[in-house]
Amino acid sequence: MSPTNRYRWFHSLKSRLILWILMPTALLLLIDIAVIYRNSESIATSVQKVLLHGSAEIISDQLFYNEGTYDISIPPAAFELFKSRHRDRVYYAVHSQTGTLIAGGDELPRYPNRTEIEEPIYFMTDIDGEPVRVIVFAHTLTNAPSEEFAITQVAQTLRGHDEFRDDLILSTVRGHLLVLSITVAALFIALRWTLQPLMRFSNMLSQRSPGSLDILDEQNAPTELQPVIHALNGYADKLRYTLSSYEKFVSNTAHHLRTSFAIMASQIDFARRNSDDPRSQAETLDSIRKTMGESSKLINQLLVLASVEQNRQDRSTEAPVCLSEVIAQVIEQMAPLAQQKGIELGVDDFDETLFISARPHLLQEVFSNLIGNAVQHMGKPGGVTVSLRRDHDRAHIVIADDGIGIPLEMQPRIFERFFRIDPGRPNGSGLGLAIVKEICDMLDGTVSVSTPSNGIGLQFDLLFPLSSEQA
């Protein structure tokens, strides 16, 4: 399996589900097999001990004490207990209390420790290099003094024991493998059946026409798919709104440019008809220059919007910028126009130590639009005040004027693209405040508009997160 296919396999929900089910199941089966092995060993040992004990009792029952001598007759039943296909070797020996061999062979070693009457003792040893299990069984004798006893030992090799244990384990493993096989087969069938709605959903999406934003049926979908369909429908709604906004934006832009070009064409025609009047031509050229300036401003604003979108995708090149320096530059640029209109530009509560991460030209665009609008649309002599202060981990900028203001019902819409308070006014494209909002959003900041507490003029509040060095 190639690394790519292996990566895809591990990132498949079906594969993960199979692993999460099969791995614990397999682990439990392995643990169970280990327990069964231990139990099988114990069972096989118990069975062998029972056989040894039975054989030792049969032999013991045939031993008699007669006036200082011992009589014993070993019946075949004592060894038929061990009869099996495994051909185990069986050894026995009967010793008196003093250690005299009464019957059997001398292959079996004597048990060196103390024995209790009628209490079997088992131990392991080797005979001719083969392991055997031995029972030591002390018992009283018929017709013998009460203190007289004998010791019977019977031993058997472990061939049948091991074979019996292995049969038990093999039988258990076969059962577990059968269960695991049935589980795997049932799991694959269940997954295939369960994932059919997902596959149908995938096929339905792949067969949709390009650009389709139709709402998907959420109610009849499986419960697990409903959150996904709900999210896709929400995304489609947002995309539909975005596309509608872009269509409206392109339409409005084309309308503004077409209007500007139509005005310039009319002005040129007028100049050609009045070619003999130098004064009229000069006025017409001034009008053409003004119209071209407005068109150039519109194009520049469109380029700024495109730059904002580009910077939104990549903010890695941003560096800390001193807010007070940018605001001071903008105030200096606006000072001649403000003086011409009788407007006083001033600062109040101005913290010169605040830095934010941004590109300087975008900040200049924000403050040029806000301060420029305040100066341009004041409507009378007055004042524009800018304040800059720290608000926890943010920089708070307030730009307030005492001009004619904006009606309260129109304030929520002033950040929309191409929105103008007075559509009849020839100057202004309605993009300035939209650009301000886009830049603030891109910088993780906020901008809001309100009427000052004295009810006169307009106030803009901007909040920007401070650069990481100051936060």
Automatic annotation (TrEMBL):
The lineage of its organism: Bacteria, Pseudomonadati, Pseudomonadota, Betaproteobacteria, Rhodocyclales. The keyword DNA damage does not apply. The keyword Amino-acid biosynthesis does not apply. InterPro entries: 2CSK_N (IPR013727), HAMP_dom (IPR003660), HATPase_C_sf (IPR036890), HATPase_dom (IPR003594), His_kinase_dom (IPR005467), HisK_dim/P_dom (IPR003661), HisK_dim/P_sf (IPR036097), Sig_transdc_His_kin-like_C (IPR004358). It comes from Propionivibrio dicarboxylicus. Its main location: membrane. It holds the Pfam family 2CSK_N. This is histidine kinase. Its EC number is 2.7.13.3. Gene3D superfamilies: 1.10.287.130, Histidine kinase-like ATPase, C-terminal domain (3.30.565.10).
